[in-house]
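Chain A, query sequence.
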Amino acid sequence: MNQSQIGDPAHDAPSPDMRIGDIAAFVATHWRRQPCVLSTGHDFRDLISEDEIWSDLEHGLLTPPYFSVVVDGVARDPSTLVRSRSVAGRTAHGYAEPGLVRAAIEAGATYILNHLEHWKPSVAALASDVARAVDCRTEAFAFYSPPGQRGLRAHTDGSHVLVVQVSGTKDWLVGYIDDESVATGGTHGSGNLNPADCLVATLKPGDVMYIPHGAPHQAVARRSPSLHIAITLEEPTPLDFVRDIVDAFVAGPAGAEIEATWLARSEHDRLDLLRQAFAHYVREL
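Chain A, predicted structure.
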C-alpha cells in the first residue's frame, strides 16, 4: 500500500479533529479497514518534544505508572527506577530517578510516558478531538526509542491506534487484516512479521499512521532517537452494549416498577416478572 495523502497542508486548513487533514475522508477511506500512513506536514512538537520529556524527568513529579521503561518488550521493575525526595520536611517516595532512567535508555531501553491525556493538556485536547471524531474512548502514550531499538515485540493492541511521529524516524511493519484477524484484545508475541504480509513504512516527523484493531505490528527506530505519540481508540465491546442496555432498563420506568414490588414477591414471581419485562424492553429497542 502506498502512503496516502489526506488533505493538502499547503492549501487546506488543519482539521480541528485529528490534524491529519480531512477527517471525513479518513473515516470513509481508512477507518476499520487497512493500515495506512497519512503525510500531514504538521509539526507535532507543540504536543510534546524531546526537551519536554527530559525536563519532566529531571524536574517533574513523574511516578509509576505514569512512566515505564521497556527492554525488548519486557518492562523494568519500576522500583529500580525511582527515588525518595524530601518535601516540606517529609519523605516522599517513588519519584523517577533521572540518572537510572537515562542509563536504561542509553543501554537500549524504550522510555514510555503513560496516559498523557491525564497530565498533558496539549495531548489531552488532541485525544479528545479524536474521540469525538470517531466516537471512541481514547488514551495517549509517548514512546522514546534510542537508535536501532524496538520497544515492543510484534504484537496486537486491544484497540485501533494512531501513531503520531514527533521527531526522528521509525521503521514499521504493520500486518494487513483479513477475515481471520482477531480483535478481541491485545496479544504479545515473540516472532517477527513477514514484510510480504505487511504495510512497510518509515515514519518521519509530521506523519500519522493508522493501525486498525487486530493488525499485528512492530517498529524499530533508525539512526537517531525516535519520539512518537500513540493514541489508542477503543470501540465499545459486545459486553459494553449489553451492560448499557441492562443499565438503561434498570434505570427506566420498567425497572422502577419492578423494584417497587420486588420485596413483596416470591423468588419465582421476581424472576418471571423480570424475564417478561426485560424481553419486552429488548423487543422495543
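The chain has two domains: 1-235, 238-284. The chain is about 30% helix and 30% strand.
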